[in-house]
Amino acid sequence: MKKLKERWGIENNWQVIVILIVFAVTGSTASYIGKPILHFFDITIKNFGSFGYWAIRILLLFIVYQFMLVFFGWLFGQYKFFWNFEKKMLRRLGLGRFIG
């Protein structure tokens, strides 16, 4: 826990637990809502083939996950941590110019 607190710049164990819960909830929720979104746009293996379907699904889940991570971070009182986390990730992906 000490290494995580130092690396993430947080002060107590409770924050580590909350942050791990946010990661878990976000991943589960993004995966859960991915299917209805794909269904709404009629993105199926039949229409796009196996490779196309999974490529689109992974891209969609990645995008949904990014938005939900900040939302759930805010909901659990860790907005600052997750917003900084997102900015760092966007910079690594070369999208830093979109965050100001």
Mean of pLDDT = 90
Strand content: under 5%
Number of helices: 4
Write down the overall geometry. Answer: elongated
Number of strands: 0
The biggest beta sheet, please?
none
Low-pLDDT runs = none
Radius of gyration (Å): 16 Å
Helix content: over 70%
Distance between the termini: 32 Å
Provide the structure class: mainly alpha
Q: Could you give the order of the helices and strands?
A: HHHH
Can you describe this structure?
The protein has 100 residues and is mostly helical. The chain contains 4 helices and no strands.
List keywords for this structure.
100 residues; mainly alpha; 4 helices; 0% strand
Concise synopsis of the structure shown:
With 100 residues, the chain is an all-alpha fold. The protein has helices at 2-8, 13-40, 45-75, 79-92.
Helices and strands in order:
Elements: H1 2-8, H2 13-40, H3 45-75, H4 79-92
Helix pairs in contact: 2-3, 3-4
